[in-house]
What does this fold into?
Amino acid sequence: MMGKRHSSTLVLLLLFISLSLVSASGTVLVDEVYYKAYSGKSNEFVHLVNTGPSSINISGWHLSDLEGNVSIPQGTVLGPGDGYYISQTEGNFTAIMGFAPDLTFQHQGSTLFGLRNDGDEVLLLDDSGNVVDSIIYGDSEHSGDGWEGPPVPGVYSGKILERRGMQDTNTSLDWAAPYEFSIGQSRFGPVSSDADGVSVFSSPGSSLDVLYSSIMEADSSIDIGMYQFTHPVLFEALEERSQDVKVRILLEGNPVGGISKDEMSIIKALDSAGARIRLLYHEPDIHIYDRFNYLHAKYMVIDNDTIIVMSENWNTNGVPYPGEEGNRGWGAVVEDAELATGLEEIFEFDWNPKMEDSVAWDDSRLDLPEPGSSPEPESYLYVDPEVPKIENAKVTLLATPDNAHAQILELIEGAEESIQVQQLYIRNWNEMENPYLTSLYDAAERGCQINILLDNTDWDGYGGADNQYILDQIQDDYEGSNLHVRLMDNEAHGINTVHNKGMIVDGKYVLVSSINWNEHSPTENREIGIIIESEEAASYYSDIFWDDWESEDLPQLTIEMLYIEIGALAFLMIIVLVFFIKKIG
It folds into this structure.
């Protein structure tokens, strides 16, 4: 029998040979740099990725900021596509990322590698000191060493510099992403599947019956992601089901105006009934920084085989009692295990108790109101909802900030005939025109008929609809006759607010989502949406859209209509002028 000493020597020899055979060619790139950490957090990091088809031994490689170095330990090999996180500290990194880094910064002689907030250099050097990759950012004036041209512009605290795909021109163009991700945000891709069944519904209408029946028919589990939850009927249904079904609810901890006493009473009562409830919370004073600006999604995963996605919050405006007025919104029930798994993965990522912003609702650090009395529902008689059910429709699951922005633009850019948009509002982005609006202009130029229907509410209290200015802007920007936009006559249709975030393309594709068309919703919030590919589903939502579109009180606002009105006014003025000339004569 071979002795232990000889056995160990053989193992080390084989390990040496295997590492020697690992390809030293290929490309390892710096693809993420997080240099501007939140106050009180020491979790700067650099991420490396192997973009080649073979494993690469990076033992003895270094990160340098031209002042200090971080050495990569012996035996470090990156497989194809593998990443490698090098962070300032382990604890603060893990608290927001949910996993530990591969390596932490170390003293190299008398200097410490670190990333300046105003600007710095990040150079990846191989074991011979050759520059493998580099990035120069902020106010750094460094040039050379694998970099050409100006530095990458700086970012705000909490934002990550992220490479644009895997392109590598050694210039700032490599880092010109459409927007920056925040630390701790996910990178899920869209999930598509031929769903077993899709049931479509709307508010006002059958939304309460659909949600109530879905809760009551659950067999094993209910997971909910929601911005606001104060609905008495849905509360009572979940309170009852929490006795025998695993119920988890993830809520936004800092909604506009704060969590209400009614919502706190529901949270407390459901917790007592056996449900588990967490909040996504943000409070810099106690060093809790959220991964998303808001958890603004409205979804439910049932029994790991069914999802419900909608535009409405769970309150009596978003989910009105049958026959009563409420907000206009769309929703869909999708029966499909693959899509349910995809949405469950998103829920688990957001829920993860290891993340510092995922907090128990009764955490003593939180500044929350005392619960009020439990809400009493109005008289509600459940009626089995009669909603259209579509068989074998292709459905794509979207999430922000991960993938929805690109998918929505792709949907608009692929339109051939028509697009109908119903939104709470459309807002310009901070440093660019709203990209969805720009894409709609382009679609109109291609010959598509575009109809945009917006809410007409006066939210700011200054008089007049808040969306009026976007109508004026569209009139100034677009000079064709294929784009039509108007404000919905809410009162005439028995609608409190157009709270929808939906779109229909070519009578075949439908977007049902919680995504507002401002800058923060697709780039900062956690939102969930689906694209349904089905003429039957499109027909259902189209009927609702065109009914909402019709109005005797609000004229359609188009450039074509404006010309007609100007022409009519000029004709009337000519008649009056002729009348007076004749009278004087």
